[in-house]
Amino acid sequence: AEATIDDGSCLQLDACGVCGGDDSSCSGCTNPDADNYDPSAIVDDGSCIVTPDCPEDLNNDGTISVADVLAVLSEFGCTSSCTMDVNGDGNVNVADILTLLAAFGLDC
After folding, report:
1. Is 94 left (phi over 0), alpha (psi -120 to 50) or beta?
2. What is d(CA 7, CA 43) in angstroms, rounded to the nearest whole number?
3. Which burial class, exposed, middle or buried, applies to 56 when counting CB atoms under 10 A from its CB (0-12, 13-18, 19+)?
4. What long-range pairs does 45-53 form, CB within 8 A, spacing at least 24?
5. Can you name the CATH fold of 52-108?
6. Confidence of residue 2 (pLDDT cuts 50, 70, 90)
7. Where are the beta strands (DSSP E) in the chain?
């Protein structure tokens, strides 16, 4: 049963207003730029997933440039745990270079 009258016995309300709660009833992603944004969330639970607008901008400088090409070339031939895998296939190969070159010169 839920209390309908506050008798003062609740010592600690969580951020959601639940007596003795753990913030779980109002937790979620509070970043409006995230793919999984939850507008009803009050407490950020660290679950936000933000997909970059420009996956080809490997150095995150806002422009797809020679620096990004050099970054891909620095891992060319990688087949596992590749950080410069532009197209997300798990490898750094010609397909990544072609994907990057198709976006070359664009601003993010």
Report:
1. alpha
2. 27
3. buried
4. 52/108, 53/108
5. Type 1 dockerin domain (1.10.1330)
6. low
7. 27-28, 43-44
User: What residue has token string 């997909």?
Assistant: 51
The model's pTM is 0.54
What is the CB-side half-sphere exposure of residue 33 using CA atoms within 13 A?
A: 4
> What residue segments make up the domains of the chain, in order of their start?
1-51, 52-108
Over residues 81-97, the pLDDT tens digits come to: 999 999 999 999 999 99
Paired residues of 107 in beta bridges: 63
3 state SS of 52: coil
The tokens of 5 are what? 């009258």
71, 58 in Cβ contact below 8 A?
A: yes
What's the rounded Cα separation, in Å, for the pair 24 and 35? 20
Alpha-carbon separation of residue 77 from 34, 68, 83, 87, 104 (angstroms): 32, 16, 12, 14, 21
Residue type, 14: D
Q: Give the confidence band of 27 by pLDDT, cuts at 50, 70, 90.
A: very high
